[in-house]
Amino acid sequence: MSAVDVSIVVIAYDSEDDLRISLPAAAAQTGVATELIVVDNASRDGSRLAAESAGARVVALGVNRGFAGGANAGIEASRGRFVLLLNPDCRLDPGFCRALCAALDRPDAADVGSASGKIFRAEGTDLRATRIFDSTGLIFTASGRHFDRDSGIAESGEGRGAGEVSGVTGAAGFYRRAALDSVRISTGWFDEDFFLYREDADLSLRFRSAGWRCLYVPEAVAFHRRRNLPDRRRSMSRTANLHSVKNRFLLRINNSPVEEFRTLPVLARDLVVLGACLTLERESLPAFGFLWKNRKRLRAKRREVRALRGARGRLP
User: Fold this and answer.
1) 115-129 tens-digit pLDDT
2) pTM for the full model?
3) Are the CB atoms for 35 and 66 separated by under 8 Å?
4) Domain ranges across the chain
5) Is 6-224 CATH 3.10.620.30?
6) Which of 287, 292, 262 is nearest to 195 (CA)?
7) How far are the Cα atoms of 116, 120, 233, 272, 278 from residue 236, in angstroms, in the given order?
8) What is the pLDDT of residues 283-300, one digit of tens each?
9) Which of 20, 71, 198, 210 is geometrically suited to a Cys-Cys bond with 311, CB 3.0 to 4.6 A?
10) Please, are residues 129 and 122 in contact by the beta-carbon 8 Å criterion?
11) Residues 6 or more apart from 122 whose CB is under 8 A from it?
């Protein structure tokens, strides 16, 4: 057994201020053996110094590889039985990792590959707590869309109990290493074609296809200051919007049955997206150029992903 239970991997890009708040909380996890790794995506500020000051091991990248590439570099450098992928603007309660380890170490959880804690929204530069949910796990609709469950809803009453969800948000995604390794593809554990945005949903779908379950564990609490939301699209960066458009199609190419491409709701939404890019958001049009230019490679990767079906059952 590894001496490290959980590798906490934080992907940073110009995140100095947030790291000075979130890293001490990550380093203060109780009840489990952890290592703290910060992947610096070629930051231009003092992110690396903030990470070193918090006692983290720094993986310094020469170029910005996005969240997906940074996550892959961090997983490569890690050695824990579990990996927690963490946004720099996410602050953990001290028992976060302990609760998730306990849930996945139960005898009846051998087929659980990932888990979500109870993640609330954080506010301000100090990542102060609110009682507004940010995510209690990912859910997928029949038309292939995905959402953070309970996002934007105020906590009331006893709340949800533990149970299964469809996936975990990249803000604080907790993964079993064996599960990660079982679904790795040529573009990484996280598909680096995504760069950022929706890469967590893509990995969640691969987990499900391979036969891994995902749990919601409400005893694990964290606070995340979410920047990108659908109703804030006009204020999001051009880069984020471009990748959002590209990745909605990549997600389907990787994971969806052919029949889904032809359904009326999906086709109608595709036309809405294309129309918006032709009129209101022309800076996102290169997304379609990427998809066309790489169409042969993307089809080959789709076959690679589909070959992972039932991968958990083939583990020794």
Assistant:
1) 999 999 999 999 999
2) 0.93
3) no
4) 6-224, 230-314
5) no
6) 287
7) 26, 21, 5, 19, 18
8) 999 999 999 999 999 999
9) 210
10) yes
11) 89, 90, 91, 128, 129, 130, 134, 223, 224, 225
